[in-house]
Design a protein that fits this description.
Blueprint: H1 44-73, H2 81-91, H3 98-103, H4 116-137, H5 142-156, H6 166-179, H7 198-222, H8 224-228, H9 231-241
Length: about 250
């Protein structure tokens, strides 16, 4: 029915707005605000994948250390790390000072050496626990990543020739950069609205460039077949010879 002349028109209530006093809006009409979209340049997914991949490599490294360190550098190992540390300490006149720590930085200096096997196992198990937690949950902070880095650094610096390969230093460098991908205290997943520092991003890019360039330079210096582009010929020839190709 049309409103009579002079009668004010009534406004229709808005959807979701409260009606008269005491009336609540229909819950079916209330909508949560949409989640903010992922900003370009946040590197959220890349950071999460890189953090978990680093934790996976740590996990494998500590698992290998747990199974092999006692036989390699333990109390009855091939090259006992206790004797190595004693020689280092003797070289610096029997004192543990900054020169000693800078020559062989390891937490073992501050521990009891009566059972080196127990120390090595404890380091490996702690590293396994931290890396497994980060790998499964995707949650980490700078404290955890720094702890696992220091533990692995402590093992490498007493591992002597067993830990003198290039991938050990590459894991330490990658793990050091991973510290700065995480928040300082908060033990939660990486926030989508807090991108990492450009310094860390370019440090990772520089690391990748050096690894790729170094791998290529080693091959070029090692054998002429890399310059002649014939190394793959020998590679596939060996596969066929040893039965790698069915029916060959």
């Amino acid at each position: 029915m049309a409103a009579s002349a002079g009668e004010p028109l009534r406004r229709r209530p808005r959807r979701g707005a409260a009606g008269p006093a005491g009336d609540a809006p229909d819950p079916r009409e209330v909508r949560d605000p949409p989640a903010p979209p992922l900003r370009p340049g946040s590197f959220w997914l890349t950071r999460l994948a890189l953090l978990r991949a680093t934790a996976l490599i740590y996990f494998v490294a500590f698992l290998v250390a747990y199974h092999q360190n006692k036989a390699l550098i333990g109390d009855r190992g091939l090259l006992p790390c206790k004797l190595y540390l004693e020689n280092v300490k003797r070289h610096f006149k029997g004192r543990i000072n900054m020169e000693t720590l800078s020559y062989a930085p390891t937490l073992i200096w501050f521990l009891d050496w009566s059972s080196m096997d127990s120390i090595l196992d404890a380091f490996a198990l702690i590293g396994l626990a931290i890396s497994a937690f980060v790998l499964v949950t995707g949650c980490a902070n700078m404290i955890l990543m720094a702890a696992v880095w220091i533990i692995y650094l402590s093992l490498i610096n007493v591992g002597q020739i067993w830990y003198s390969f290039g991938w050990e230093s590459q894991l330490l460098e990658t793990g050091f950069l991973a510290i700065f991908l995480c928040p300082l205290w908060t033990l939660s997943r990486l926030a989508k609205d807090t991108p990492p520092s450009f310094i860390v991003i370019w440090a990772y890019r520089w690391l990748i460039f050096r690894i790729m360039l170094g791998a290529g330079m080693i091959k070029m210096r090692g054998d002429r077949c890399w310059k002649d582009l014939t190394c793959m010929n020998y590679h596939y020839e060996l596969i066929r010879k040893w039965g790698g190709v069915p029916g060959a």
